[in-house]
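Minutes, project huddle
Topic: does the predicted pose make sense with histidyl-adenosine monophosphate bound?
PN asked that the exact inputs be recorded in the minutes so nobody has to dig through chat later. Recorded below.
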Amino acid sequence: MAAKLKAPRGTYDLLPHVADDRMWIVDVARGLFENAGYRRIETPIFEETELFARGVGEATDIVRKEMYTFEDKGGRSLTLRPEGTAPICRAYIEHGMHKEPQPVKWWYEGPMFRYEAPQAGRYRQHYQIGVEAIGAADPALDAELILLQATLNEELGLDVRLSLSSMGDACCRPAYLAELRMFLERYEADFTAEQLARIKSNPLRSFDWKEDYARAATDAAPKLLDRLCAECRAHLDEVRAYLDAAGAEYELDGRLVRGLDYYTRTVFEFASQLLGAQSGIGGGGRYDHLVEELGGPPTPAAGWATGFDRLFLALSKDPAKPRSRQSQLDVYVAVDDPGRSELKLKAFELVRSLRGLGKSAEFDTVGRGLKSQLKQADRSKALFTVCIHAAANGALLGWVRDMASGEQRDDVAIEQLVKEVAEAVDRKKAEEEDIGE
Ligand code: HAM
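Predicted holo structure (tokens), as shared on screen:
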């Protein structure tokens, strides 16, 4: 036998029961996004490598170590997207969206690719759902975005904590970074050569280091939250005023840094206590210079993304499981003798007619005998089973069984079957809805 192939390391197959849960999450999210004026956008899975190098930042782990970059047959350097914000800004610029009424509000979902060490909640192909609002600097927009993610988490039944901070801007951040660098260099003897290089290139990353000595140094270090200029402070205060008015709970966290370089001012993260090391479920913030850095006009913007994979992990650890849409079959169409082609032909026609009327219908395609077709109807949780058979005089007839009550109508003329069964399904569903109310 040929050697078995497996899904690549850090990836997984989305089997139907999980795919159903995911559709449920996308439905909930889409309802919320569309109510808030966000429209769906899809960008390519791969982009020019330069987009991420410039957009996400040369000094980030994502660009330095985690990108799936390849050369195509035309010699172009392309990269599987590690995140969605830079591609969306590229699309905003490419399609001249700055000429449209601002802000342009978009939502997206799909796979992202990062070459990270796989572990629970961390994959090389992971899935994000996110929103971006491009073209407005108003702190009310930051608050709208944060509350949108809070509502999504709430509707999904997730218990999460919100951390909030500010990354400052070109006015206050450079002086702070110089101060932080100087402070950390006092601990030079403790740090590794790689850490010292990071302190030079991107000292904010030090807040993510897990070693005790690094944590002690960064705990003692000055925080950007205490060094904001008047404008950044006022922006943060306004975001907080909106969140407070909405009754949102959050913690101001001076250690909160995000793994991407484009943020200015507001940054935030939602984390679940049910998850271990990878507790960050979703996060984002403001990125007022990204559009300009990618060649567009100066354009303030903000957004977030949440990871499906971690949403799932958190939901699966929670006793209140997701209410995934159970796929249920309306009608299973059986034949009493699978060897008779005229019966199968009728069954095939009946299935197509029922589907045409919006009912879900299935039939056997692997030559099961009647008994095992009926078993299959049970397994598919069919509301009704229809069985087509031939009477002694050769006329084709059907019986229709309500699978819950066992009630059965015999000898329905073949011409009547579609109408009879479709109406029975409608009645059954109406009854179920009445009970549900
Ligand atoms: P991010 O924090 O890098 O932000 O990713 C967003 C979410 O994607 C994370 O909170 C996490 O749930 C999930 N995630 C990231 N990497 C992995 C992984 N390797 N495996 C599983 N899940 C993962 C961004 O990507 C920004 N583009 C968010 C944003 C949008 N900021 C502004 N607008």
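Observations noted during the meeting:
- The chain has a mean pLDDT of 94.
- The pocket of histidyl-adenosine monophosphate is lined by residues 83-85, 114, 116, 121-123, 126, 128, 130, 132, 259-260, 280-285, 287, 303-307, 309-310 (CB under 6 Å).
No decisions taken; revisit at the next huddle.
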